[in-house]
Amino acid sequence: MIDLVVSGSDMSGTSTQVGILIDFFKNLGKRVKDIRGTEIDALFHAGIFKEYNEGYFNLKEYLQDPNVSDEKKKDFIYRANELLFKLKIASMIKNDITTYIDPDIADVWIMEEPAKRGGGQTVRTLEINRSQYGAETDQISASFSYQVSRLDEYFRFRKVLREKDKIIIRSRSEESMCYQVFDNKNLPNGITKSVYIRLPGNKIAFSNPPTHLFIACDPELTKEKYVELKMQRGEGRNLDDFENDADYQILVNKRYCSNWLERVYNETAKKYKSKCPQIFRFNMFLPKDKIKEIVESKMKNILGI
């Protein structure tokens, strides 16, 4: 079982790495499905929608296919919305309250944190954008919202995928505590580590941690370098409150670069009888072709090919 998490501070290029891994597995001939996105993106993969989803990587690919009629696309959207009105959301568990996705339709599943559904929707639209509502950021509230999302995604999808020995590629996980745990200087409103690791969703996450972590970081990152990076990689995006806080991002990057995470995982592994992930780090400022080379090389080593 491979449950690989791509992580790093904001602007570190997690989307680029995930894209590299998607292409890598497709080139190996693996069946890859993308379950990132909203509830309707997840529903797209359900068995009852096989006539729409068969052969497609995700809903976006399906909707952009010029060979599929607008009528058929609208038919899927209508049927999916009917299920959502009844709260028949997607899951990989056969039960009476959700819409079933067969985990065996793919070898590799692409996920994200926070998801754009469930508790993750609250994180994305409120917790990291509180200034849009005339409020100040609240890291403790954000931590609680994140852990709800982890519960949601674990029980609906990740638990089954791990049991089925699937390959999971996801951006960020409970290691994003680098963003939320108290620091006297740069994160005085952060949650304490002891409380963070005991939250129900985080307890589940640390009990079932990633097998591997790919971390893009830079031990020499400065506030000035981050601002420059933000201007380059954030162009055309609505930047959230945390992305706009350079001092905060320096703290996050420092934690990712050091053995801070290893110490936390060693602690939680003992506490929850789990196994520490293998952690690989590389410089976030490397050219894309070099990052591709490193990521693919590490992945080949993990797969033993």
Tell me how many strands there are: 8
Query: Radius of gyration, Cα only, in angstroms?
Result: 19 Å
What is the overall number of helices?
A: 13
Q: Which structural class do you get from the secondary structure elements?
A: alpha/beta
Q: What strand line-up does the widest sheet have?
A: 2-5-6-1-7-8
Order of helices and strands: EHEHHHHEEEHHEHHEHHHEH
Sum up the overall morphology in one term.
globular
**What is the CATH superfamily of the largest domain?**
P-loop containing nucleotide triphosphate hydrolases
Largest sheet: 6 strands, parallel
Q: Return residue spans where pLDDT drops below 50 for at least 5 consecutive residues.
A: none
CATH architectural name of the largest domain: 3-Layer(aba) Sandwich
Strand content: 5-15%
The number of domains is 2
The helix content, as a percent range, equals 40-55%
What number is the mean pLDDT? 96
End-to-end span in angstroms?
15 Å
CATH fold name of the largest domain, please? Rossmann fold
Q: CATH class of the largest domain, please?
A: Alpha Beta
What does it look like?
- The protein folds into 2 domains: 2-30 and 107-303, Rossmann fold, CATH 3.40.50.300; 35-105, no CATH class.
- It has 13 helices and 8 strands.
- The strands form 2 sheets. A 6-stranded parallel β-sheet has the order 2-5-6-1-7-8, sandwiched between helices. A two-stranded parallel ribbon has the order 3-4.
- It has 305 residues and is of the alpha/beta class.
- Helix content is 46%, strand content 12%.
- It is globular.
